[in-house]
UniProtKB/TrEMBL annotation:
Domain of life, source organism: Eukaryota
Keywords: Repeat
Taxon lineage: Eukaryota, Fungi, Dikarya, Basidiomycota, Agaricomycotina
PANTHER family linked to this entry: AMELOGENIN, NACHT DOMAIN-CONTAINING PROTEIN
Annotated protein name in UniProt: Nephrocystin 3-like N-terminal domain-containing protein
Gene3D superfamilies documented for this protein: P-loop containing nucleotide triphosphate hydrolases (3.40.50.300)
InterPro entries: NPHP3-like_N, P-loop_NTPase
Domain (Nephrocystin 3-like N-terminal) ranges: 76-225
Pfam family, one: NPHP3_N
Length: 320
């Protein structure tokens, strides 16, 4: 039987969704990695513009504390810092301000920000850990250029690694490429910022049962913490700044002996004079509004507003 007779009687014949191989050619590997990254989770993503930042002159004590811990050219003794506070205390603004300030340093010959991932509850791309390792790896190819060929080679060698477990991705896309570099002791340590860990809710696997949904959130957030601990265990030139609400399961996991010994904890509620920061913000905003008024309204407008604000903020100990 000749090859041409196999489909002799076929009509309207077609092949759909056929993939012949998963080979990624030279030069396409990093583009392939970029395609699978959650780019909107990065601190300077266009989708986050304008990014939440601390008002100028506020949160200075907190930011100095974080920068002092990181150390820039001298790595900290504990390479993980967990910054926690309830909702509304400006954790994301602190993370964004730290990222911006460190990247703007001109006295260093390296970029201190290795990678960032801002979890975001309402974003399908940013509220799940499925892109977490891939996104960090992609950013490392930019912030640590000497690492790029090894990450690129890992993707070329097996493009399906992007569909493997997060633990396998961590090994193949981050740990092994770092090890291929050889001597790491003299490499500047980079800061990895993970904001909003409590907003990692694994939405693509949500359960309709409320109890199960809560358990899924706890499980996935603890899994991210474990990924960070595993990365730390390989003695890579990386430090990790984690910001989140003090959820009981996160707090409990950080307090485990294996985690506590490598983690410095910072409670935003106890660091700095946040009431003075609020007062500074309110005063400057009032001044901006006053400047926009007609000269004749200048004297009358602030008086009534200030009296009202004194009443409203008396509970917090703020006097305008």
């Amino acid at each position: 039987m000749s090859g041409s007779s196999y489909f002799a009687n076929s009509k309207d014949f077609g092949i759909k969704k056929l993939t012949f191989n998963n080979y990624v050619s030279e030069g396409d590997a990093l583009q392939y990695l970029h395609k699978h990254s959650a780019t909107s989770a990065m601190h300077d993503s266009e989708k986050r513009y304008p990014p939440p930042l601390c008002h100028e002159g506020t949160r200075e004590v907190v930011i100095c504390r974080i920068e002092g811990w990181y150390g820039f050219e001298i790595p900290p003794e504990k390479k993980i810092m967990w910054v926690h506070a309830p909702a509304g205390y400006g954790k994301t603004a602190v993370a964004g301000t730290v990222s911006k300030k460190m990247e703007s340093r001109t006295d260093l010959d390296f970029n201190p920000i290795g990678a960032t991932f801002f979890f975001w509850r309402t974003s399908d791309e940013c509220n799940s850990p499925k892109h977490f390792i891939i996104t960090l790896a992609y950013q490392f190819t930019i912030s640590i250029p000497e690492l790029a060929p090894y990450i690129e080679a890992a993707v070329k060698r097996n493009p399906m690694v992007l569909n493997k477990t997060l633990e396998v991705q961590l090994t193949k896309l981050i740990v092994e490429p770092f090890k291929f570099l050889g001597e790491l002791d003299n490499m500047p340590h980079r800061l990895v910022i993970i904001d909003g860990l409590d907003e990692c809710i694994n939405s693509d696997q949500q359960s309709r049962v409320e109890k199960q949904y809560a358990e899924d959130q706890e499980r996935v957030q603890v899994r991210v913490l474990e990924l960070i601990r595993i990365l730390h265990s390989h003695n890579l030139p990386l430090c990790f700044l984690i910001l989140s609400r003090p959820e009981p399961w996160i707090k409990r996991h950080v307090e485990f002996k294996s985690f506590q010994s490598i983690t410095e904890t910072l409670d935003l509620y106890q660091v700095g004079d946040y009431l003075s920061d609020v007062e500074k913000f309110v005063r400057e905003k009032l001044a901006c509004i006053a400047e926009s008024l007609d000269p004749g309204d200048h004297e009358e407008w602030p008086r009534g507003v200030i009296q009202e604000m004194n009443t409203r903020y008396k509970y917090f100990g703020i006097h305008t």
